[in-house]
Design brief:
single chain, 251 residues, alpha/beta, elongated, binds iron/sulfur cluster
């Protein structure tokens, strides 16, 4: 059974991204009342602060239309506070909160108008490092040994008729995404690549999911195929389904 897509967690990002400009705007307006000599400048600072807050309230179609500028602007906040988050041991949590914030906006926007042409992007490191199956060129080249998530992903792809790419370089993934021209990207990767990818392909709505790294970066990484399926079911118009396919069944 497909699990329900869990709620997005982004309070950390929202507190900083919405909270700081709001506090700055309130301070600026208070100073405008006290400092008559520079009132104009304080009012201007307050208006800028409120404008920064206002963008975080954009939803639905308005969000999708302006998404590239929101993403690029919010990514500057992520980069600005990333060193502090790293010092506090919260770097991944900080980046994932940014991802969660935009995931939530995309989920909301797609609730009433699901994507019709979605593309799944996955990194090469989901394949077992010692496996020689040439799945980059053809996912069905997987031998279905079950030692890595590729087998489950293959079955789900065949069943739901997903379009997907597994790439070993970020720039190839961006190129594939631009060539396919999807109306939604569902990407699984490490947090750093998720951040970069969202900025590089900001014009395409994206739902992003982090990899688990039980063996460290880029080696035998894991992700939940049921959770990916839940995301696809929540965000993408289903295609007519085929029966689950395996080589044994089709032999
Ligand atoms: S499931 Fe087995 S054969 Fe398929 S990619 Fe993973 S390790 Fe290779």
């Amino acid at each position: 059974m497909t699990p329900t897509l869990p709620p997005e967690r982004y309070a950390l990002f929202l507190w900083v991204r919405r909270g700081l400009p709001l506090v700055a705007a309130i301070l600026a307006f208070a100073l405008a009342l006290l400092d008559h000599a520079h009132r104009g400048w304080w009012v201007l600072a307050g208006v800028i602060g409120l404008t920064l807050v206002w963008t975080t309230f954009q939803r639905g179609e308005a969000y999708l239309r302006a998404r590239p500028s929101f993403i690029r602007w919010d990514a500057r906040w992520v980069k600005a506070f990333r060193p502090l988050a790293r010092r506090l041991g919260m770097e991944d949590a900080w980046i994932l909160a940014f991802c969660g914030f935009h995931n939530a906006r995309v989920r909301e926007a797609m609730m009433h108008r699901k994507a019709r042409k979605a593309l799944i992007l996955l990194p090469h490191c989901i394949q077992l490092a010692r496996c020689k199956a040439p799945i980059f060129d053809d996912l069905s080249a997987c031998y279905e040994c079950g030692l890595c998530p590729v087998e489950d992903f293959l079955h789900a792809t065949l069943e739901h008729r997903w379009e997907s790419r597994i790439t070993n370089r970020s720039h190839k993934a961006y190129r594939e995404a631009r060539a396919y021209r999807p109306d939604l990207i569902v990407a699984v990767s490490c947090t750093d690549r998720l951040l970069k990818g969202m900025v590089k392909v900001a014009d395409v709505p994206a739902y992003v999911m982090p990899l688990s790294l039980p063996h460290g970066m880029c080696v035998d990484t894991q992700f939940s195929v049921p959770l990916l399926t839940a995301a696809m079911e929540a965000l993408v118009e289903p295609k007519p389904r085929l029966e689950p396919v395996s080589r044994e069944a089709s032999a």
